[in-house]
Amino acid sequence: MPGPLVVLAAAGLLLFLLPLAGLIARAPWAEVGPALRAPETATALGLSLYCSLAATATALVLGIPLALVLARTRGTLRAVLRALTTLPMVLPPVVGGVALLLAFGRRGLVGAPLYAAFGLQVPFTTAAAVIAETFVAMPFLVIAVEGGLRSFDHRYEEAARALGARPWKVFLRVTLPLLRPAIVSGAVLCWARALGEFGATITFAGNLPGTTQTMPLAVYVALETQPDAAIVLSLVLLAVSLAILVGLRDRWLGAP
Amino acid sequence: MLRAEIKLSLGDDPFELDVRLEVGAGRTVAVLGPNGAGKTTLLRALAGLVPLAGRVELDGEVLDDSRAGLHVPTERRGVGLVFQDDVLFPHMSVLDNVRFGLGRGGADTAREWLDRVGLGDKANARPSELSGGQAQRVALVRTLATQPRLLLLDEPLAALDVSVRADVRRELSRQLHDFSGVRLLVTHDPLEAIALADEVVILEAGRITQRGTPEEVTARPRSRFVADLAGVNLLRGTGRDDHVELESGATVAAPEAGDGDVFAVIHPRAVALYLTRPEGTPRNVWRAKAEDLDLQGERVRVRLSGSVPLVAEVTPSAVRELGLDRGAEVWASVKATEIAVYRA
Question: Which end of chain A is more exposed for a tag (fewer CB within 10 A), N or C?
Fold first, then answer.
């Protein structure tokens, strides 16, 4: 390997390493205890976990069928569906938030009739935070499951049908269990993305402590007023991310 | 009783399957053919896994009738499908695999079936812990336990090691014997067909070219494929009473050569080779060139080119005496009475 490539690789690695080092070096370790026990931290962390898990659950319920449909379509329809599914991955999250507002806002495409009929308001509620996170994170699940389906041996399903299994039985007892590795890694990635979601959430759901202020939002707000608390909250998020990484290392990110 | 009239083509592929088949209950029919002949497609069509044009009727019940828009889905056809490799569900135990197609309380039945093939002690094992032969036995039992009316076997022994193939073939033979429905076995192995089937159907390029008992089919090959299976020379030409005229212009003397389009079969052992033109009785003497020599068991197969392309089977000592080698010029001779001629 040419020497300069090694140097460039080292520089790339440093770019990842330095911020982490900064975070750990500057952490006010003495205040970690009190900051962690502060009710605001618990509230933000609890809300973050609730919203990200709810978003992952929603993504599982909607995303697995979507991946199945994607894997079964061909041609232009497939290209369109695929583009629609992956759009949130490349779209700036803030734009996603604005778009969600225009769809579900009080004067939005779906929001207006919802409000007129039931007096239902989606934006700036916990549900909005869940929707925003699902919007941004579900593509990770769909892509992972679709990838699993691409290498899927459909003869298992054919064998199940020949044994007399109806479509639901084939899906629940053969397709789903065989897709488990893809579903698990997709769900973990989806959850990690939902947990870190900021742009779409703050735009669509706002920044209301206890209702929509998740950890990333709390970090951002704390940075203005009490930087030490922001660092502690960041450390908590870092710890959670590391836990995900370690949990995944065998399934997805690890060596062959 | 299975009656099927199947026409189908796959996507843009110019390949078309066009088959008419009738198989009585309790009979095993082997579908034999070269790769890409449509054997597996035929099985998949009968299993209801690919859409077809035509009609499929099993024990008087119509499973497919494209004109009436009728199609019974795979899971309600009462067919059993055994694949080339076992396709056991890897996330279930052996017992759960066999239970899969059975209703409530299927565990006892499943255990009985496993005992029947001597795998009762493997009930709690995962499919990955089984040997190839054991896995294929479980796959067979998993299908038989659902008591299908039509059993479709797609090269069930092809993926197995030669060492266990004979064992599993015997097991398969035993189980097929006890099975009362219609059995259709796809294979490219003539030995499998002869060992397991009552009747052989030859499928080539999507069409049935020959059918009959294994003996009937190999005695009168109607295609190069069957001739190769039977290991005989197949010539085609025009019958002229006492000889057959080949396209190359060469003539093959044979009693009762008939008239019109005919096949002539010559066993390789009936072909004698000489360095000089033989004197005496044989009327069939052709100049030939040895293209290839291949030692098979106690005999050497010599592929000859010339106006009458043939394979001759001679002894190794004959090869030495003739000094036979690739490229050698020889005379080939066959007694007229050794040639069987029948209408094409």
Answer: C
